[in-house]
Design brief:
- The protein has 254 residues and is α/β, with parallel strands linked by helices.
- The chain contains nine helices and ten strands.
- Helix 3 (98-110) crosses helix 4 and helix 3 runs parallel beside helix 5 (152-164).
Length: 254
């Protein structure tokens, strides 16, 4: 495995009672890149993410991370090795403050238990680190806000902050701009660009303007198989992609 490839799949396949959701997918993600996985609904994108983060075992094939075979490695061990999916540690405590949610992420990185039975003051040592993370995602002014009160786009930024708390080398982002208005999309795109400066990002995303503006490499899935791969300028002109992806989108909005 080349040193510049941080993640690779070899003939990765997943079947569900005879239905092949992921069909011999060969994927190579370059270290330091922003790589998008796109395709119409039902193309297998989420299943690939579930395989990579060990929510599902493959029917066959291999997953290699930093040259190591992690095909059957436990999810927690994969996360500790630096491969982290955003929703795995998203802000799942709506009635904690933004700062408290990031502190939970930092506790997980330290490998300690949550110490719910100890005074809150024992967590204050993490405050400076948590605030630095909130600064990095433009949420410092929301530190004492209850998470349930955050605007939707800011909640997605908080999810990225809690992911960053684990110091990932490879971040997997599952539709980070889904359901957002134009202003929030622009903010999250710039945030992803910022956090990708010293790490690798693999993302599933439907918004083609986001993909064209942000991603170095695009892999197009259709019916569980890789249909095309390359930079946006190349992939967007591929007739097979236009038929499978853009055509599908037009039909859905007809």
């Amino acid at each position: 495995m080349s040193a510049d490839i941080i993640l690779e799949t070899r003939e990765l396949t997943r079947e569900f009672k005879g239905f092949v959701a992921v069909d011999h997918v060969n994927l190579k993600v370059k270290r330091g890149s922003i790589h998008a996985l796109i395709g119409p609904n039902g193309a297998g994108k989420t299943t690939v993410f579930n395989l990579l983060t060990k929510f599902l075992p493959p029917t066959s094939g291999q997953i290699l991370y930093k040259g190591e075979d992690i095909t059957y490695t436990a999810p927690a061990a994969v996360a500790r090795a630096g491969l982290v999916r955003s929703f795995q540690i998203s802000a799942v405590f709506p009635h904690l403050t933004v700062l408290e949610n990031v502190r939970v992420g930092l506790q997980r990185k330290l490998g300690t238990s949550f110490h719910f039975w100890k005074p809150e003051s024992t967590l204050y040592t993490l405050n400076d680190q948590a605030m630095a993370l909130l600064e990095s995602v433009d949420l410092a002014s929301f530190a004492q806000t209850k998470t349930v009160e955050l605007p939707y786009g800011r909640k997605r930024a908080l999810e990225i902050a809690t992911t960053l708390a684990l110091e990932p080398e490879l971040m997997l982002l599952d539709e980070p701009t889904q359901g957002m208005g134009h202003e929030d999309v622009g903010r999250v795109v710039e945030l992803i660009r910022k956090v990708a400066a010293n790490r690798t990002v693999l993302m599933v995303e439907h918004n083609m303007s986001v993909i064209s503006n942000l991603c170095d490499t695009i892999t197009v899935l259709a019916r569980g198989s890789v249909l095309a791969e390359g930079p946006y300028a190349q992939v967007s002109k591929d007739p097979r992609v236009l038929e499978a992806y853009v055509g599908s989108s037009e039909e859905q909005h007809a």
